[in-house]
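Q: I'm writing up a methods section and want to include an example of the input and output format. Could you take the sequence below and give the corresponding predicted structure tokens, formatted cleanly so I can copy it straight into the document?
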Amino acid sequence: MTTEKSGATHHVTATLVEKIRNGELAPGDPFPRGWELVRTYRINRGVAALVYHRLLRMGLVRPENDRAIVIGPSDLARLTALMPESQQIDEAVNVIIDRIRTGEIGPHRRAASLRGLSSQYDVSVRTAKKVITALTTMGWVYTVPNRGTFAVPKHLWPTESPNGVSPEKLNLTGCTTMQALESRLAVHLGFPHTDKPQAIPVPNHDFLHCAEGRHDRNED
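A: Here is the clean output for your methods example:
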């Protein structure tokens, strides 16, 4: 997401939060429709949709029939003006882990990028970096510097690790084959070392591009 679009989302969201807090948008009032937000705040429909879904996640509005309704003031005390960064990180991390566990993101396939995370979750690049760091620390992904961030295969998932993920930084220097990569991953992720890690039948294009230095940078 561009800085301009992200800034508009934050600005309009904060404005509407304040209107709910001060009673200008009272409990039970219908929440403005998308076209009303577009006209009032001179934003596009994409930003209007992001604003609505952000307020919905924050618990400030709720859907009712064909409209959204503003919630009551008793529910507002626990809310912050905007979703905290920690909540944004948790949301993105949980979605990506779920995509890995369900197979939507396959083994050794690209799992995340800074630009992709920023666009999909409407967060800053700094927050996107924290998402990748959290996933790496938890053992769900591994990052090859200047190449990309990839999903850990199922037989090395952290939920199955007998010893837990190593706190040391993963070093993949010299790993130019899938077998070498998985051997290094197995040690780092807390699995007993084996000279014959589980093989993936067909070499993965993402990893081959990564090993040969042709993959896009992680910042893309």
